[in-house]
Each structure stands twice: as C-alpha cells, then as structure tokens.
Specification:
Layout: E1 2-6, H1 15-29, E2 33-41, E3 66-70, H2 74-87, E4 91-96, H3 102-114, E5 118-123, H4 135-143, E6 148-151, H5 154-164, E7 169-171, E8 192-196, H6 205-216, E9 225-229, H7 236-245, E10 252-255, H8 261-269, E11 273-276, H9 285-292, E12 297-300, H10 305-308, E13 315-318, H11 323-335, H12 338-348, H13 356-372
Parallel strand pairs: 1-2, 1-4, 2-3, 4-5, 5-6, 6-7, 8-9, 8-11, 9-10, 11-12, 12-13
Length: 373
C-alpha cells in the first residue's frame, strides 16, 4: 500500500512533526511505501510567537519529507499536488491542527478527490485553543472533500461530528515516538513536579503556580520542587512576576527553551508527577509521553485529559482553573505516597497502544485497494 502524509515534519519542530515521524516510521515498518509532504514555511512571522520554527536537536526525528509547501503560496500547493499524483498513493492523510491551514488543505483535498484519491483528515485539534475568526467556516471548507476522519479523543470527535455528516469519524489514542520513552524503572517517590511543553495561556501554568504556596505550607510537602521546562509562547514577565509575588523562586526551576528530543526522556525520568493544569484541552502529547514513561499525572478535567487519566489509578483530576483543588490533589498525592502505586499501575497496563493510528490508516487504504480491484 502507498500512503501520503501531508503535514509539518523535520526540520520543523513540535508535536505534530514528531507525530509525522512516528507515523512514517510505523507505516514503513509495516511494509508500506510512505511519502511525506512537508512545509518550507508554516506561519507568517506575525502568527508565530516562538523563537525559531526549526528543530536543532541532536536526535533527529527525520521523516524523510519533501519540504514543498508554503501555507500562503498556492504555487507550492500545485507543486505538492503534482508530487502526490506522481506517487499515486492509496490514501492521503492530512494533519489538521489549525483552521489557518483550511484553504490549503481544502484545496488540495478537492484536487486529490478529482484524481480519485481517498483523503483522510487526522485531527490533533478540531478547533484552535485561541479564538480565531472564521474558524468554523475554514474547517467546513477543509472537511467537505474528506472521505473519513481520525481524532485522538472522544471530545474532539464530538466537536467534529457536525462537520463530518455521514462520513466515519474514528478515535485512536495519540501515539508517542519510542525515542521519548526511558528504559529505567523510576520509583516516583520524590517531590519533583513537572510542567512540560510550550507555555501558552490555555496551558494554565498560572493555576499551578497559585497552587504551590498551599502545597509548600504543608510540612510533608515543604521540599517540593517545580520544574517548568518549555518555551514561552506567552508573555514570560507575568509568570516571572507571579513566581516573585508568591515567593516561589527557591522552589521553581525554569528551563525556558524548546527542549531537544534527546533530553525529553531524562526530564520525565527525573520527575515524580506531571501536572497538566490546562484551561482547554483536546488531547495532549505531553500526557502520552508521561504515560509511556510510567509517570503519574495530575490534570484538569478538560477535554481528552479525562480519557488519559483514570482517577486513583494512574493519576488525579481537579476542576478546570481551580488552584485550591489542584493544591489539595498535590498534597494528597505526596502525603499518601501515591507515586509508586500509580507508576506501577501504568507499567502493568501496557502504557499505550502505539500503533492505533497506523492501523486505522492501513484499514482505510486497504479498503481503497480492495475496491479498486
């Protein structure tokens, strides 16, 4: 079977580029021919708040892509169409995460359908975390020519259903590249709290910071340490001021950069619990990395996070935006010594099904091959 994946890939950085690497590798290992069409440029400068779009990691997650597309340049869309048509795949898989790419993906999907190619939209976020004008119209445009859809959470599936009509929408857990999984068994009996990933308003870091004084006031938790590892996509000043105002400086370690691939497993190995205080969530690649490393999670009851965290089995949950409730859960986690138990539960559960998305794509492609015969 032949599969074309359209989405960001190395040397572009980020979770979706990591996912494209995983998908290309997994499908290739299953014996399929895989073409990856990536971007030369994702965003205009005004829409990209980070420092650089490119991955400088020593451990390259290289999907052997052809970097053809520019998001706002239709001439590159035509080049991508020609490259895909020449490859003649059984199925084309679009990576969807933001309506900004609706015109590009909707236009290409229509062209592919006219050429008899089956198109799948794999949704990482149905809607953006930040409000965007015309988001629903752009999604509708992109979704109309699509044959089937994949989401990574039931909450995203529910958001997508009104746009899918009678076309199938299937759910598969977000897989994690094995390169992010450590090999050593960790006891998780210490006091290190991890907040990991890009820092944006919807991630709720301020909720976690406001919970920390109450946690540290407990005698059993006074030695707690918070590690914040990730690049600021939001104003750093407000978080630094909050750390200062709450007198947390001696308890907080801030590693404010894009974390290279080769350091990720080590960071998760050194933590005792991951906190995801998200104000809005669909699914979380960070949560999946934690699961793959048997690291327990304390998360807000937001979107797909409740599908990853089974309360009192592999983690704890708290109401969205409630710093006091988060503090109580952290105190409970540490005073009851829940880390080793939850971590063992994660290990014994098999952690995750790493090939769910690849299996779905394989099935969809095989349907086309059977029909064509």
């Amino acid at each position: 079977m032949k599969v074309t994946i359209i989405g960001p890939a190395y040397p572009l950085r980020g979770g979706i580029a990591h996912h494209v690497f995983y998908l290309q590798k997994e499908l290739s290992q299953r014996g399929h021919s895989v073409q990856v069409i990536s971007f030369r440029k994702l965003y205009p400068v005004l829409l990209f708040p980070g420092r650089t779009e490119f991955d400088r990691s020593v451990a390259r997650l290289d999907a052997n892509s052809s970097a053809i597309l520019r998001s706002l340049n239709p001439f590159t869309w035509a080049r991508a169409y020609k490259a895909v048509k020449s490859f003649a795949p059984d199925v084309v898989v679009f990576q969807w995460w933001h309506p900004f790419f609706g015109p590009l993906m909707g236009t290409l999907a229509r062209a592919f359908r006219r050429s008899g190619l089956k198109c799948v939209l794999e949704c990482h976020n149905v809607f953006p975390h930040d409000d965007m004008p015309l988001a629903r119209l752009l999604l509708k445009f992109a979704a109309k020519p699509i044959d089937s859809f994949i989401t990574h959470s039931r909450s995203d599936r529910d958001d997508l259903l009104p746009f899918a009509g009678d076309r199938p929408v299937q759910v598969a857990s977000l897989p994690v590249p094995r390169e992010f999984s450590g090999t050593m068994k960790q006891t998780r009996d210490g006091r290190t709290i991890l907040f990991f990933g890009m820092i944006r308003k919807y991630k709720g870091l301020d909720v976690l910071l406001r919970a920390m004084p109450k946690v540290l006031a407990r005698e059993e938790c006074k030695d707690c340490r918070l590690l914040i590892a990730g690049e600021f996509y939001d104003s750093a000043e407000k978080y630094l001021k909050l750390i200062e105002d709450l007198k947390l400086k001696q308890h907080v370690t801030l590693d404010s950069r894009y974390i290279p691939n080769e350091e990720i497993a080590g960071i998760f190995a050194g933590a005792d619990v991951l906190v995801l205080p998200y104000l809005d969530a669909t699914q979380s690649a960070v949560a999946r990395i934690a699961v793959s490393n048997s690291l327990p999670i304390i998360a807000s009851r937001s979107g797909g996070l409740t599908e990853v965290v089974t309360e009192n089995v592999n983690g704890l949950l708290f109401p969205v935006g409630d710093s006091d409730a988060l503090a109580e859960q952290l105190i409970s986690y540490f005073t009851k010594g829940l880390g080793p138990e939850f971590s063992n539960n994660l290990r014994s559960s098999g952690k995750d099904a790493p090939d769910g998305v690849a299996k779905l794509i394989e099935e969809l492609g095989n349907e086309v091959s059977t029909t064509s015969r």
